[in-house]
Every structure is written in structure tokens, then in C-alpha cells.
Amino acid sequence: IMNLLAMGIILSCSLGGITGIHQRVEPLKDAGYKAKDVLRIIKLKPIIAFFIGGLIVQTGLAFVATSNPYYATHALGSIGKLTIMNTVAIVGGPVSLLAVPLAKKIGKRRIYVYGMIVTAIGCLVRLVAVNDKTSGLVAACISSVICSCGTSFAQLLYYSIQADNIDYVDYKLGLRAEGVIAAATSMITIGAAFSLYVLSWTANGDGSYTKLGLSLADGLIPGIVVFVGAIVFLLLYRINNEEAEKIQAVLSERRET
Fold it and tell me: What are phi and psi for residue 209, nearest 5 degrees?
């Protein structure tokens, strides 16, 4: 019932958003790129930093997404507990509305990193939940809320940062590289395979999974991986709000002339 309710809310909001769109985007003439330009694009430092940081972070998040059903079944005692965890995670949606004003004040880059660090903390809370099924569900729900808030913040700004990267490529090379950047970001969900490997490595003979395996796959490893990815992004990605505004101003001037 909860899943159907969630699906209904998502569908109604999606349809409402579609019907409210009155603009149509026309393609820019002579704004494409050739195959030989791809290497020039992906060699730019912000693109490399965006890809490496995103790859590490998304690998950690894929760990959680893949191992959650096993975690609910074997640590909490029922796959139905996953529905409760997903339902309370809806809290992250409204909280994410604060991301944009905070990003304008503090910076997209920093708010994205802060969101990922909050997510990492949420993952580590899962370590408490494997010890007792009753209190474990409470800990799992708290973890889901924390992860949801952090991820909602970061994912919202992730696409905004992606747009800044597209502008940066245009600024440096005079090319619109939406396709290359979108393709690169679609290759960063390899963490699911690692998660299943960790679970299989610590499986019991009866098809269940040890507390060690659940702790590693759904708590400790993703928490560490997401935290490392956030720090790597913070250190390598150097486009701040001021530079992004400067780039946009230059591009606007170019288009006017």
C-alpha cells in the first residue's frame, strides 16, 4: 500500500510538472562537436574531477541501494521493513528545497560536499541496526532519513554542477558538450557489483548473510567510500560560484556578438 501511495504521488507530481511546461528548447546551430573533440573535452580538469569524485560517491551509494533488500531481510527480519525505511526517506525531498538558497550563499561545491558527508554519516548509523531487530529498525529509519537529506541536497546540486561543466567546456573550447558529460556520468554506477561480492563473500551456508557482511556492504564500506568521494571532489574540483558567474557572463557576451 505504501509503495502504491508513493508511486501515485510521484506520478501525479510528474504529470503536473509536464503539463506546466510551456517552453520548447530549440537546438543551437553550429554548437555541436566532432568525435576528435571528445578527448579535448574529457581532459579538462573540472571534467576529470567531476567524473572521479562522482564515480567514487555513486559507487558508495550503489552499495547501499543494492544491499538494502538483504539488509532488511537478514538484519531486520523482513523485506517489508524496507518499505518503512523507504517511506521515512521521503523527508529528504522537502529538506532539499534548502539546497539552492544555501548554495547561493555558501557555494554549490561546498553544499554538495556537505550533503555527501551527511550521507556518509547516515550510512555509518546502519552499523547499529545489525545488533537487534527491534531497535535496529529505529536505527535503520534514522539512517534512511539522514541519508535521504544528504543525498537530496547533493543530487540536486550535482546536476547544477554538471551544467557549470557544460558552460566551462563552452568557455574553454567553444563546444557544447552535453552529450559527452551525460555519457560520462552514466558510467558511474558500478558499485552494485562490489556490494554483491561483499555479501557473497560473507554469506552463510543456508543462504543468509552474516552481521559482518551486512555491516560492511550496507554501512561501513559505503560510508567510507562516500566520504572519500566527497573529499576528493572538494580537493580536485575548483569551479566556485564566482568563477561560474564569470564564465556565464563571458558566454552571454559571446552570444550577443
Answer: -125, 145
The identity of residue 160, as a single letter, is S
Amino acid at 208: S
Enumerate the H helices of 77-190 as residue ranges.
Answer: 81-88, 92-95, 99-106, 108-129, 133-173, 178-185
- The string of pLDDT tens digits covering residues 50-73 is 989 988 888 888 888 888 888 888
Tell which phi-psi region holds residue 77, choosing left (phi > 0), alpha (psi between -120 and 50) or beta. left
Q: What are the residues whose beta carbons fall under 8 Å from the beta carbon of 84, sequence distance 6 or more?
A: 2, 137, 141
Q: What is the pLDDT of residue 19?
A: 55
Rounded to a whole number of angstroms, the CA Rg of the chain reads 21
- DSSP β-bridge partners for residue 209: 203
C-alpha cell at 238: 575548483
Asked whether the beta carbons of 69 and 79 are under 8 A apart, the reply is yes
The C-alpha atoms of residue 86 and residue 218 are separated, in whole angstroms, by 15
